[in-house]
Amino acid sequence: MNIAILTASDPDQNVGGVELYIKELTNALKKDGHKIDVISPKKKIGGHLSLTWTTLRFCLTSHDLSSYDLVISNSHSLRLITKTKRVVSIFHGSGLQRFFTDKKAYFSPFTYVDAAFEVLDLILTERIVCINERLKKFLTKIENESKMHVIYPGVDTEQFKPKKRTQETAKKILFVGRLTKSKGFADLVDALNYLPQEYSLIAVGGDEVKEVPRIKYAGKISHENLPAYYNICDVFCLPSRSEGTPLTLLEAMACGCPVVATPVGGIPEIVTYDAGILTPVGKPKKLAESIIEAAKKDRVRVRNTALKYSWRQIARTIIEVGR
């Protein structure tokens, strides 16, 4: 098939969850013989204002997508440039959901613009993919459930796979992401106070800063080098306060690394008992107990849990939705 993938950002410039999703989906579709064009405003995005203005201007420009057999949209605003009915819209999250549930959040004027685009996308598109059941449940309050399909993000199980590990007494915990309150990083640091001394933390993401006892700040690591970190660690921890369906959890599981995460967003849908443990939000002591328990998990069973999320299978399922 001749497929266009729409994105509001530049996958070559940004390294966020959506950009990684698009990159991996594109690679998986190409492996199955599809011809892929990734279409974006082609300008480095430097913030919410720039992003919204650039995509608005892009939408007002003429773009003929009629030659494509299928359009896969990852942007509510760019969905408006498609005249063909053969469109699959991927909902990675919902600004509307945050708008109605997070009363303390600051909303700029562009929040309302984004909300309008999201509603239009829901109404205009006949094939909608939600990245988890929780998101689908919210969106069905606005639009017909019959047009919605839950397809979880995937993981490259050839890139992220177990490697031989040396037996060590020391236990390593891995964190990958922004070192922010929303990601629960402070809770994880506090949890170290409740863990035996043989436990230490490796933090990947953000700037490389001076190390403190029991914490190694690795700074930004390329996606290609992440498997080595998942393999040397005993537990991967993501104690977030809000999430979608994090790719990092699937990557850790594919490497056989047990996971500890909070039951937010789509996390409870992918973290099973064989793969890891769910722990309450904002409870460092309970988090520490969960880390100790997760370290005992069988790494083969953890790996097997992730195999059903292979990108090749995810890509083929999306194609079936689009037919």
What's the topology here?
Elements (H helix, E strand, L loop, with lengths): L1 E5 L10 H15 L3 E5 L8 H13 L9 E4 L13 E5 L3 H7 L7 H16 L2 E4 L2 H7 L8 E3 L20 E6 L8 H7 L7 E6 L10 E5 L6 H7 L2 E4 L8 H8 L4 E3 L5 H4 L5 E3 L5 H11 L4 H8 L4 H12 L1
Parallel strand pairs: 1-2, 1-3, 3-4, 4-5, 5-6, 7-8, 7-10, 8-9, 10-11, 11-12
Give an account of the 3D structure.
The protein is α/β, with parallel strands linked by helices. The protein has 2 domains: 2-150, Glycogen Phosphorylase B (Rossmann fold, 3-Layer(aba) Sandwich); 171-308, Rossmann fold (3-Layer(aba) Sandwich), CATH 3.40.50.2000. It is built from 12 helices and 12 strands. It has helices at 17-31, 48-60, 95-101, 109-124, 133-139, 185-191, 226-232, 247-254, 267-270, 284-294, 299-306, 311-322, and strands spanning 2-6, 35-39, 70-73, 87-91, 127-130, 148-150, 171-176, 199-204, 215-219, 235-238, 259-261, 276-278. The strands form 2 sheets. It has a 6-stranded parallel sheet. α8 (247-254) packs across α11. The longest helix has 16 residues, at 109-124. The protein is globular, with a radius of gyration of 20 Å.
